């Protein structure tokens, strides 16, 4: 295995140097040289016009993988309901399963959870693996991982998808490490290529996309960002087979115990991932009080208020409002960015919004490069004017 | 108190930009830095050690020789000694192979109370290595840790959730993957720390030092394969709306109504 430069073919043109995201290639004496920073991502080989860079991948296992069937979604519950991303994953699982000619599985763990089965069937589940137990009321890495590992070993699905939520990103790697499986984090695209799951994900803070496969182990596993896949329209006539999973879980041996759960989100208010419209503020807001005009705009439009990392770091908004690489990924119908310069780290969290409006006094702000509509100017003049205009227009409709 | 912190050297992705002409990465002038989340993990470890009043912090990294500078920075921030896992055999590792390698090294280091990891690395953003290391070691993990305080033989933890936070109590040994606090801005280590860092123990281990199953390291031990990397498709450039505030606001609302983004009555 490894990466080699074919010296006869290399012209020292430097295309590979530019292509390498890890600064691992240099040209010395008119020949490319690759150092230990190389991650074998293949960007240089793709960029080379002379086929002078060759990557040898290890031989994959010859184990027969055809016995693995079923496209599963791990269903995450939240409060009284199913977290929206779970339904999005069921939608994607349905597309993939149709293409593979396999069944859609939904894995549902919790206490008194059978009531969600109809909803899961309506959204595409063919088989529901139902693990109900009072000790599964709270999520613990250890208990959930144990049940999931058992299910996967017994039923041998070909694909398992997890939401890329706090819970999913805690659970999935634990399962992958236990069973010796590949896991691709935070996917934004999934498709089938040559019978395998092609997993596309942003890396490098969203600066590059990577396509990833898992040729030698089953199931293929991925965590998937909320708000990038589309849920299917519910079909209440659909029925699913329910497989009851025996649960024998004791919480006494746990090394980690939940003592308290605190919500900083106002009851009845939808979370940012679930609202249709977001008004977001950044460094340009100046202080926390100034967010009042964004709250007003959000109220008029029936949406929520988000924030950039700069505004959260400044202490103007809670961490739960943060949109971007290290915050939430949202894709509302309308995203209005106010006083946000819109570096790539912010864009990663919101650029799949249907319509983007940017208001910023700096005409060079990167946010304008992705905005459908931009207004260059003082947001403290524009937002109040916008509030008046929206009130007038929306009022007309009533 | 025996603490191990797993860290990574990463390209400073905040400095990376896309060339709008060619839609490729502009990497010029992009430095390799200590992953900012890992710096927070080191600072937390130092705070906990100093709070307990005794202990030793080892910083551990897998990477090329250049990653030495990231570990030296950790030593300057107050860690006691450093181990760099460096071998061509480790190259091309996915999160499974990386976590296997780190876990092998941790077993070689001996008993510990806490393993700290940054929440995620800013180049890959997977957040998978921490939980996978915990599983390889057979210990518990807590991710999205916002605060951690040692109290006797247990740790009180505040863990971030989508809707707020949880208060947890964990027994040691445990692996904690930490979020930076709200106001976290990675700073420079003090000059006294930089001077001391050069005298602190620093070891480099290769695959032979770790032993274990050679086929589990690097590309050979990886289940996932990157088959292609490319720049994300650019989103089409939109319209700049001109005019003073009331005019621009009016034009924008009209445009949104026309696009059926908001309903305009009639």
Quick overview of this protein structure:
The complex is a heterodimer of chains A (398) and B (266). Chain A has three domains: 2-56, 2-Layer Sandwich (Alpha-Beta Plaits); 71-244, Rossmann fold (3-Layer(aba) Sandwich); 277-396, TPP-binding domain (Rossmann fold), CATH 3.40.50.
Number of strands of chain B: 15
Number of helices of chain B: 7
Question: Can you say what the CATH homologous superfamily of the largest domain in chain A is?
Answer: HUPs
The proportion of residues in beta strands of chain A is 25-35%
User: CATH architecture of the largest domain in chain A, please?
Assistant: 3-Layer(aba) Sandwich
Low-confidence stretches of chain A: none
Question: What do the pLDDT scores of chain B average to?
Answer: 89
Please name the defining characteristics of this protein:
heterodimer; A: alpha/beta; Alpha-Beta Plaits; Rossmann fold; 5-stranded parallel beta sheet; globular; B: 266 residues; alpha/beta; 28% helix
3D structure, described in words:
The complex is a heterodimer of chains A (398) and B (266). Chain A is 26% helix and 27% strand. By secondary structure, chain A is an alpha/beta fold. Chain A folds into 3 domains: 2-56, Alpha-Beta Plaits (2-Layer Sandwich); 71-244, HUPs (Rossmann fold, 3-Layer(aba) Sandwich), CATH 3.40.50; 277-396, Rossmann fold (3-Layer(aba) Sandwich), CATH 3.40.50. In chain A, the strands form 6 sheets. In chain A, strands 11-15-10-5-8-9-16 form a 7-stranded parallel sheet, sandwiched between helices. In chain A, helix 7 (292-301) runs parallel beside helix 10 (379-396). Chain B is of the alpha/beta class and 266 residues long. Helices cover 28% and strands 30% of the residues of chain B. Chain B has a 9-stranded mixed sheet with strand order 11-10-9-12-8-1-6-7-13, with helices on both faces. In chain B, strands 2-5 form a two-stranded antiparallel sheet. Chain B starts with a strand and ends in an 8-residue tail after the last helix. The chains are: A alpha/beta (398), B alpha/beta (266). At the A-B interface, helix 6, strand 11, strand 13, strand 14 and strand 17 of A face helix 3, helix 4, strand 9, strand 11 and strand 14 of B.
């Amino acid at each position: 295995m490894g990466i080699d430069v074919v010296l006869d073919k290399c012209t020292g043109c430097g295309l590979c140097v530019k292509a390498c995201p890890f600064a691992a290639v240099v040209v010395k004496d008119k020949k490319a040289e690759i150092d230990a920073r190389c991650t074998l991502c293949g960007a240089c080989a793709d960029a080379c016009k002379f086929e002078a860079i060759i990557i040898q991948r290890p031989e994959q296992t010859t184990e027969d993988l055809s016995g693995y069937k079923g496209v599963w979604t791990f269903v995450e519950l939240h409060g009284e309901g199913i977290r929206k991303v779970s339904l999005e994953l069921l939608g994607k699982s349905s597309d993939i399963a149709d293409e593979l000619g396999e069944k859609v599985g939904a894995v549902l763990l919790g206490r008194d959870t059978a009531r969600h089965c109809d909803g899961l069937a309506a959204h595409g589940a063919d088989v529901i693996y139902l693990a109900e137990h009072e000790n599964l009321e709270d999520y613990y890495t250890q208990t959930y991982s144990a049940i999931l590992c058992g299910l996967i070993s017994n039923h041998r699905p070909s694909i398992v998808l997890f939401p890329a939520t706090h819970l999913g990103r805690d659970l999935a790697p634990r399962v992958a490490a236990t069973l010796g499986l590949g896991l691709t984090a935070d996917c934004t695209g999934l498709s089938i290529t040559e019978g395998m799951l092609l997993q596309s994900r942003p890396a490098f803070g969203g600066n590059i996309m990577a396509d990833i496969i898992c040729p030698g182990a089953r199931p293929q596993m991925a965590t998937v960002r909320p708000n990038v896949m589309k849920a299917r329209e519910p079909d209440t006539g659909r029925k699913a087979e329910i497989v009851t999973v025996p649960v024998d879980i004791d919480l006494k041996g746990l090394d980690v115990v939940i003592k308290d759960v605190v919500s900083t989100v106002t009851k009845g208010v939808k979370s940012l991932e679930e609202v249709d419209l977001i008004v977001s503020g950044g460094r340009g807001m100046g202080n926390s009080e100034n967010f009042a005009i964004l709250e007003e705009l959000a109220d008029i439009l029936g949406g929520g208020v988000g924030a950039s990392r700069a505004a959260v770091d400044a202490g103007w908004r809670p961490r739960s409002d943060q949109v971007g690489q290290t915050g939430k990924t949202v894709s509302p119908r309308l995203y209005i960015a106010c006083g946000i310069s819109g570096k790539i780290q912010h864009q990663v969290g919101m650029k799949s919004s249907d319509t983007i409006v940017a208001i910023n006094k700096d005409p060079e702000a990167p946010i304008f490069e992705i905005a459908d509509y931009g207004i260059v100017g003082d947001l403290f003049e524009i937002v109040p004017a916008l509030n008046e205009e929206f009130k007038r227009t929306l009022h007309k409709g009533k | 108190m025996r603490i191990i912190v797993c860290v990574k050297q990463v390209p400073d992705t905040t400095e990376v930009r896309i060339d709008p002409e060619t839609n490729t990465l502009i990497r010029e002038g992009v430095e390799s830095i200590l992953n900012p989340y890992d710096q927070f993990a080191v600072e937390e470890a130092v705070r906990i050690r100093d709070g307990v009043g005794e202990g030793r912090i080892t910083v551990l990294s897998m990477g090329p020789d250049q990653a030495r500078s990231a570990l030296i920075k950790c030593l300057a921030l107050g860690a006691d000694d450093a181990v760099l896992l460096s071998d061509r055999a480790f190259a091309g590792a996915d999160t499974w192979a990386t976590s296997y390698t780190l876990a092998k090294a941790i077993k070689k280091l001996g008993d510990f109370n806490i393993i700290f990891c940054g929440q995620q690395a800013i180049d890959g953003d997977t957040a998978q290595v921490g939980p996978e290391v915990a599983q390889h070691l057979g210990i518990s993990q807590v991710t999205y840790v916002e605060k951690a305080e040692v109290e006797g033989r247990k740790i009180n933890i505040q863990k971030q959730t989508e809707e707020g936070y949880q208060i947890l109590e964990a027994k040691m040994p445990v692996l904690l993957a930490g979020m930076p606090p709200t106001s976290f801005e990675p700073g420079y280590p003090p000059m006294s720390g930089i001077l001391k860092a050069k005298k602190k123990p620093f070891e480099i281990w290769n695959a032979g030092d770790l032993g274990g199953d050679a086929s589990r390291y690097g590309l050979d031990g990886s289940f996932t394969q990157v088959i292609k990397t490319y720049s994300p498709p650019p989103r089409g450039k939109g319209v700049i709306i001109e005019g003073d505030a009331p005019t621009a606001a009016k034009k924008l609302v009209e445009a949104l109504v026309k696009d059926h983004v908001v309903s305009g009555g009639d």
